[in-house]
Structure formats: structure tokens, C-alpha cells
Amino acid sequence: xxxxxxxxxxxxxxxxxxxxxxxxxxxxxxxxxxxxxxxxxxxxxxxxxxxxxxxxxxxxxxxxxxxxxxxxxxxxxxxxxxxxxxxxxxxxxxxxxxxxxxxxxxxxxxxxxxxxxxxxxxxxxxxxxxxxxxxxxxxxxxxxxxxxxxxxxxxxxxxxxxxxxxxxxxxxxxxxxxxxxxxxxxxxxxxxxxxxxxxxxxxxxxxxxxxxxxxxxxxxxxxxxxxxxxxxxxxxxxxxxxxxxxxxxxxxxxxxxxxxxxxxxxxxxxxxxxxxxxxxxxxxxxxxxxxxxxxxxxxxxxxxxxxxxxxxxxxxxxxxxxxxxxxxxxxxxxxxxxxxxxxxxxxxxxxx
Length: 352
Hints:
The structure is a single chain. The chain is 22% helix and 41% strand. It is built from three helices and 21 strands. The strands form six sheets. Strands 1, 3, 5, 6 and 7 form a five-stranded antiparallel sheet that branches. The longest helix has 27 residues, at 2-28. By secondary structure, it is α+β, with helices and mostly antiparallel strands. A hairpin with a 4-residue loop joins strand 19 (250-256) and strand 20 (261-267).
């Protein structure tokens, strides 16, 4: 009986070894790939998407780590933290695919090279199985980028299918006074572009006005897979002195890749005058009409004119005190005896 069971036990043991090796081989297999979404052409200022795919015939992924590479001439970001889970049939075998979208923002034309970078992760072949660690590198990727016609090679332009612009000025009707404020609010909405890729609002700083830009309000909105970046900028100018002022137009240029057309939108500037405050007299202004130093400042300057020479005199007296005391002693020796003799003559009863 023992002889009849032995072949069965041997076959079972061999089958277990083969299955364990097959499962281990399943777990050990994994791949990473990097591909560019879309067919192009691709333009400077356009938001492009790279797809980083992790794939394996195992059942699950875990402990995924990778650092985005530095790409000369482009900005690389993770603007979308979501991942996409896919499955593929490869030679009759099911592979699990985990896709990470990566945003690339080309800032110059020509060939943009995305270098290889490492991706580390673990896979499991089922519940209770030991995880298998992987450290794989992507292949380098080249992107051909065009510069929109009419735009200088060193100038970055926003590339979007639609740029909507809204602007408003908060400005009093009559003449302003020192201390009054002028505020500009600008909102830009860019289709298919993250708000963080919209450039900052240019801020004019004419003399006599102090500019105070607020931190921008940046918001990305997604509707059925369509991205719209919204950026709101707010700048406040405080009038510091009387005068006539002009805050110039602000021009925004964008490239529509669908129509291949360069568009220009403009925020109209404003001009206004500021007069001296009602309590400000002519004595408080200089000859050209600008405010002079306030009374407190003038009093402080007068005090400085008195205090500085006095401090210098005290310092010199302390520095040369021995010389001064010696001179005073010699003067006392010369002057005091004749003075006592004169006092004795005028008042014989006085002590000598």
C-alpha cells in the first residue's frame, strides 16, 4: 500500500512546487511605461498629459513611490491626484494596469526631453501572499513642441481653447485724497488648463501710489472630465500724495490650438486725480504741490538739529576731560589768589 501511495505523494509534491513557482513568476512580472496623451501638434503654453502606467498579472499594487523628473524647458506637475484602474488581455492573460496622469507644461518650442525616472512598488498575487517589491525605470520620452505664430520664441503664451476674462475697478467718482484706495479685480477662466499655469497679474507701480497685490485665488473645476482653471487676482493701490495718475491697460494673449489663432484680450486702464486732504494747508505742500513733511516730522528734524551738536559736544568733553580739567586747574591757580587779596581789602574781617 505504501508503494502505491508514494507515486501519488510525489506527484502532489511536484505539483505544489510547480504551482508555487508559477505563482511566484506571476508575482515577479511587472512593467512600467510612460506615454503622451493626444496626437498633437503640441504648443508652448499648452497643458499636456503624460500617462504613467504600472502593469502586472498579479492582483494588486501597494507602496507606490516615484519622483517627477526635472525637465528642461517644461514644468512637470501632478495636477490630478486621481488614478485610473484598467485591465488588459495579453496573450490570453489578464493584466492589471494602474494609470497616473502627469501634467507637462512646455515653456519653449523644440524638442522637450523627459528623462527616465524610477518607479518603486509592490504587488501581491492574492490575499495572504507575500508582497513582491519592484524597482523599474521608465523609458525617456521626447515631445516636439511648436511656438504659436506671432509669438516671440522667449515669450510664454497661454494655450487654451477658451479664455474668459472678467475685470472690474473699484474707484470713487470724484477726486481722491491721500489714503484713498483704488482696487482692480480680474478673473480668468481657461478651458483645459490648470489655474496654477495662468501667469500672475502684472502690477503697475507709478510714483505716488503704493501697490498691494493680494494672494491669488486659484481653483480647478472638473465637469464630466473637462477641466477649467479659474484664477482671481486683486490689486489695491493706496494714494500717497496728490497728483494725476494713470494705471495702464493690461493685455492678455492666448493661443487657441483648435483654431490655431492668436487672441488678445484687454483690461482697460483708468486715470484719476488726487487732491490734498481738506485739513492740509499750503504750508504743508512743497513748491511743486506735493505734500511736505508733516508737522511731527518737522519737529523731529528740528530736535535732531539741536541734539546732534549737543551730543558731539558732550562726547568731545568726555574724550578730552583730562586736558580740560588741567586747564581749569591752572586757571584757578592764576585767578584765585588775586581774588582773595581783593576780598581781604574790601572786607578786612573776612577769613583769608
